[in-house]
Amino acid sequence: MSAALQSPFDAAIAALSREDPAAAVPLLRQALASGEGGAYAELNLGMALTALAQFNAAVPHLRRALLALPDLPEPGVRLGVIAATRGEVAEATACYEAVLRRHPRHVPALAGLAALAERAGALEQAASLIARARAVEPEEPELDVAAARLALASDDAPQAAALAEAVLHRRPTHVATAHLLARALLRMLAPAEAQALLDQRAAAAPLSPAWALAQGFAAAELNQLERAIAAFRLADLIDPDNPDIQLEFGRLLAQQDRPDEALVALLPALAARPANLDLRNLTATLLWRRHRYAEMVAMLQEGIAEFGPHPTLNLNLALVLNAQGRQQEALEAAESAIVHAPGNIAALVNRIAVLPYHETRGTAAALAAAAADIAAALPQPALLQTTPRGPRSRFRLGLLSGGFGIHPVGWLTLAGLEALPEDRFEITAYSLRPRRDSLNTRFRARAARWRDVTDPDDAALAQQVHADGIDILIDMGGYGDTGRPFVLTHRPAALQLKWVGSQFATSGLPGVDAMLTDRWETPEGFEPHYSERLLRLPDGYVCYLPPSYAPDVSPLPALGNGHVTFGCFNNLAKLTPTVLRLWARLLREIPTARLVIRTHALSDPGTHALARQRFAAAGLPLARLELHGGCPHPEMLAGYRGIDIALDPFPYTGGLTVCEALYMGVPIVSLAGDSFAGRHALSHLSNVGLPDWATTDAETYLARAHRAAADLPALAALRASLRARVSASPLCDAPRFGANLAAALEQAWAG
Amino acid sequence: MSGQVAGAEQAIAERLMARASQLLESRRPAEALPLLERLHHLAEVPARAREARAIALLAMGRFGDAADAADDALGVLPGCGALLQIRGRARLAMGRDIEAMDDAAAAVMADSADNDAKGLLAETLMKAGKPDEAIFLAWRVAEALPQDMTAQLRLAQAFITGGRHAAADELLAALQARAPLLALPIALRAQNKLLMKDATEAERLSRTALDRGMVEVSLHSVLAHALVAQSRLAEAGPHFRAAARLAPHDAYLAHLASASAGGTPDRATDAYVASVFDGYADRFEADLLGLGYRVPGLVRLAVDRWLAETGQASIPGPVLDLGCGTGLVGVALLGLTEAGLCGVDLSRNMIAQTRAKGIYTELHQAEFSTALANLHGRYALVAAADLFCYFGELGVALASAAAKLTDAGLMMFSVELSPEASGWQLGDSGRYRHSLAYVTATVRQAGLTALSIAPETIRQNAGMPVEGLFVIARRLAC
User: Fold this and answer.
1) Closest CA–CA distance from residue B67 to any residue of chain A (Å)
2) pTM score, two decimals?
3) Mean pLDDT for chain B?
4) Which domains does chain A have, with CATH numbers?
């Protein structure tokens, strides 16, 4: 019978049987409207919507079906699955148990209940439920998978391996089973033997996805990422469009920092598995890496609408809203995560990551309070036994960061570290993110030992640092993207410091003894905002390494243009409504002036459109505004050739951006606050002898910009001399910085 | 049904092949290889997959496997120029220079317009000590591919190998001007300057590049060597260490880095000695002779005197040549080793060259102490020419060598002379030097009686004589 002749209900059932719930939904709605199918239309619509992860919409239909069809187990089971997915354990248990009271041999209900028991750690109860289900349906492979999983959890690896292998023979694309087999074999055999066994299976059936998957999981468990990626790619090629394979493949590519390839695998997987929160969050973080913010917001908001205020969804939402310059909404999302998951460390860290950007709440006091909340929520780990501080002729210096490369950490620390006397400091780098670029090579050349950290466990990493005999450990990641500051709470080294790398406030952590700073970042009297001892270097707290490819400084563009061009190359996250309104006032007062805003977030069309709206709402004249997205670094630096005066945002001021603007001959008007993040620009400007460009309030900020714009000959003269001035200043004087850093570290060691 | 299965398999195989090719193009051979291995297990292995597998293995540095894979593919595609090149490259990397040259020549014959094949042939000719032919070919390729940096650098390398340093410098200067941020031309130019005895300019070039943010093992390495050449060992240390960190598997750099760090090991690592000589085997003999290497001649003179004194026509028993190198001692003793000549060296390439001479009756590629432990005979002469410059502490080495002497046997060896009054030191060149007092005492402690410890110029280095000691000793009577 052709589709045209089918009733909507029959057509919907046909769509469901070919696993196309999206096609079934409108047909079922049509059927319901015409009264066709009755309660079965409700049930099928509920099931179709569940398959599409539209839980909120599904639930009422399933409830109506449950009332109308009390003898049918399906509605109850589906409601149980939804509740389980949402983490509503009591509700899910009640649903499954209700079904089992009427249908004691109902396999999906038994399996659902077993999964809940397993999740709660009641392995015996889970095993007994699975045994009941297997007695009913001895041929159902899913039950064998559950039995294998439980066997492994109960340390019966041979039984788990045997069950898993049997399932894989019947279902070679069953991803979870391949994972189980790999884990079971690695538990039973030496790694090489386990891998050899899988290689043997693969050679015998070269085009079976099962063995490729198991090989991939085994390699991943053994941290052989390249081998694992190759195996999952193979499985993906053998069985394309399998979302479970795509998920594993994408996950590994993400781990290897290959976001574009990972997204190719994960976006279709998420379309097929919209209810998988882990997948949704992973995909969101990859969109983050590629600056696809608008898509990320939509994906997270959709998730929160369907699955509730899941903390991870909210955390990621806070980060992306902040990146779009929506600081207030970001802080609300971050605080909502804390409300829904009290004491959740990730949520507290997330809040401190967005807080310094907030125009009124990004203060030193608020940041110190937020840091104290983290410290209070942290469990107290057992401290490692460090050797007491005593005289040393040579220190073992550990550096912990994900930024050893082309990254602000690289540009602001490498030259200083290269100049640190090698006979007094032996460096071990703990690299938290794989990088391969020219700065990374220089870090590798300087470090006597290089450790690529892949173990996500802080205690294990602390143990490694301790075993390496590190005397002084410097955290250069902080509460940033790849930071691992809690390693320090295990006390792996006798002296532990905080330096560049999301250094925007106090860490609040008991394991951080001191912070490397300077007299501008944290003048005398700022101590109450810091849990760390403030170790003030004699000049600035960083040493800027100008890129060798930086283009020449151009003549002052205003002289040729006939108007002044202001510019800001900072993240949108730093552009608060107050900043935008102040700039709008400046442009009103200088009606010929233009403003160029350049940042990678503006490459994202959705974010670009949103930014234009925000800029217009703040009163900025769009006709005199030039917006540019991301571009390669040399090109970005060349962008300063068109800027006369840079405008710094606040309360989170520019750091590396200030150094770059100055090196490109462009002075920068700044407004210093009281947080560490609020005083970066002040530090760098003071370090090159331009402290008067850092102001303390909005009126002085405006006045400074006016004064600069009004005296073009003076501005041109300053521009012409600025690169030489910066290069000769302590900001770029690596030998001087290296000597100062060495002295500061030795002094801190001596106490 | 089976037709459908075969069709499905065919489709999968095509997907695997296409993706593997993509991965190879994007320089991810380790990720391409598993796909190709799967294809290799199929009943019918596509020829393209065989070739791609060899390419992947070569790119991964698995040279032996790559040569085998190329062999396998050549079985299906005999005479294929691309495969001959892969095998040639793999063989060249393994030090099988002659076979590599055969492959390269066959590849050129297969397609005389193939510049890659000609380039490879040029490289093998350089290795074979035929610089003029290498320059000719490298020149032709560089002329055909003026924009190709590899081709230009190959020509520069050929000039250097042929001793045409001015031409190399001119070419490298032009390449440096063309690509000012590329490290390799600068490093090679600095290396060339060093060979031209212009260490100051070598230092300036490499240091400027490093200061401009260029990072490359060779820049640090050449700078360190340039500093050593100016006797600025302390300044060289950080650069040897930086180079060693960037090339963690390079035993030569690791040795120099650790030697320059102050913590002097009591002998050079075997990996270091092997790598030094595997790299230099083909030039070793010419270099040593060119440098006025006198020790084999000293051995010959001493043996002649000994035979004259004892009225014998040839050495009264087998000879053991420790650290035989390319077999120069064997050449020097030609006609006097009727009872056998056994050579031991760490370097596979050295042993290969010695074997080619056809003088030695027995050859072992082994570490010194392992070889001595495995040799059960006694020798009328044990020679160690220019070996002990790789040892700081000599006691154990001398004692175990002495244990191999027949009762009337002689031990002859050279050391580089330390300017210090006692002990031994690691010199600027990474070699050890021993004092007269130390050698005298250690010979005795090793159970030997010194018949002669004579100061000798043992070789020339950069036009300067290297002073040493030539020792003749016999076993102490029990």
Assistant:
1) 22
2) 0.75
3) 86
4) 395-537 (3.40.50.11380), 557-731 (3.40.50.2000)
